[in-house]
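Narrative of accomplishments. A recurring question from our advisory board has been how the design workflow behaves on a single, concrete structure rather than in aggregate. To address it, we present the structure tokens for one chain from the evaluation set, followed by the sequence designed for it. No filtering or post-editing was applied between the two.
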């Protein structure tokens, strides 16, 4: 009888815009000794809806939800083959005031029991990154200063209450520091989960 193939681990790398999610996910996946496939939620959204203008909150909701579903389904196939998968994408913990269609956006990913790592640099650090990145000022990925400020007020710290998640203040970290911190956090959460399961 053949042994059942061990599933890979799904990891969600999240945080506000300009937190460094995508670049961190790509570099981290590249340098890990364990094979890891990176997925960029924002790139998925851009490809799926290329050329379509966002005209309302309904459009934003549709694009966000559709890209999240595609990312989650892809991660399910990747992890089922025994490969780890890291998704870079924005996910704020649900609140009682959220509409039902937003609360269920990441339900498919939750079925994979993901580890969630939140990159949360200071507001000042994110505003400086915006000023230094012309694509964020005028390009396809442009974001206004008010949008940066608004996204910083979202409940990112609430992730700290989830035992499968951790929040990293990356304000004063170098790129290598961030990569090391992400790897340590994933290892720590994985170890705690194994210990908890073995004790049940």
């Amino acid at each position: 009888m053949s042994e059942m193939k061990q599933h890979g681990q799904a990891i969600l790398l999240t945080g506000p815009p300009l937190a460094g999610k995508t670049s961190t996910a790509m570099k981290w996946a590249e340098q890990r000794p364990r094979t890891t496939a990176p997925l960029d939620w924002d790139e998925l959204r851009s490809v799926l809806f290329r050329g379509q203008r966002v005209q309302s909150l309904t459009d934003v909701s549709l694009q966000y939800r559709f890209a999240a579903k595609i990312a989650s389904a892809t991660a399910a196939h990747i992890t089922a083959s025994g490969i780890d998968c890291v998704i870079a994408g924005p996910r704020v913990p649900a609140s009682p005031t959220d509409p039902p269609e937003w609360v269920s956006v990441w339900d498919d990913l939750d079925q994979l029991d993901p580890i969630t790592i939140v990159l949360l640099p200071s507001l000042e650090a994110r505003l400086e990154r915006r000023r230094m990145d012309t694509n964020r000022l005028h390009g396809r990925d442009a974001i206004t200063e008010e949008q940066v400020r608004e996204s910083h007020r979202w409940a990112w710290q609430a992730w700290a209450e989830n035992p499968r998640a951790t929040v990293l203040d990356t304000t004063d970290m170098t790129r290598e520091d961030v990569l090391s911190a992400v790897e340590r956090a994933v290892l720590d959460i994985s170890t705690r989960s194994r210990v908890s399961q073995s004790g049940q």
